[in-house]
Fold this sequence. Notes:
Blueprint: H1 6-13, H2 17-21, H3 27-50, H4 55-66, H5 69-73, H6 81-88, H7 93-116, H8 122-142, H9 147-163
Helix pairs in contact: 3-4, 3-7, 4-7, 7-8, 8-9
Amino acid sequence: MSATTVSDVMEGAGMTVGGFYAHFHSKDDLMAESVSSALCQSRDSLESAAGDKTGADWLEAFSKSYLSRAHRDNPSAGCPLPATLGEMANASDAVTQALASSVETLVSDLARHEQEAGQARPREEALATLALMIGGITLARALAGTPASDEVLKACRSHLKKSLGR
């Protein structure tokens, strides 16, 4: 991300650099907007997989969708965090704030369902669930093509079910 220039981005989009500055003040503004937009789309897609369920049923459906072979095998159509978090550590304040805001929205959604599931510390559980899911899918992708990849997905789903008392 950091090595990509505005010219690179605009050339890839088939537009001029002047067109870029008509919409964004800087590359950091573009990155912040991209992070927010990608995470919103990913969250909406995953939440739709959980449907109208609530509490533990919603959490189980949400995590099953996230920790799936389909999500592992199609990173461009899924959550952008596993592929980008390493670079986010060196991002600008604007990008970090966009990430923090998007993560907070997701954690709030998860915490609401954790509370409905009867968890004593719903925010803590939500943060742990999010970290387990992102770490699990990242490791499963790194191990793609090996039996361990499917084992990681299964172990993460199993652990989350146990945390819900199932």
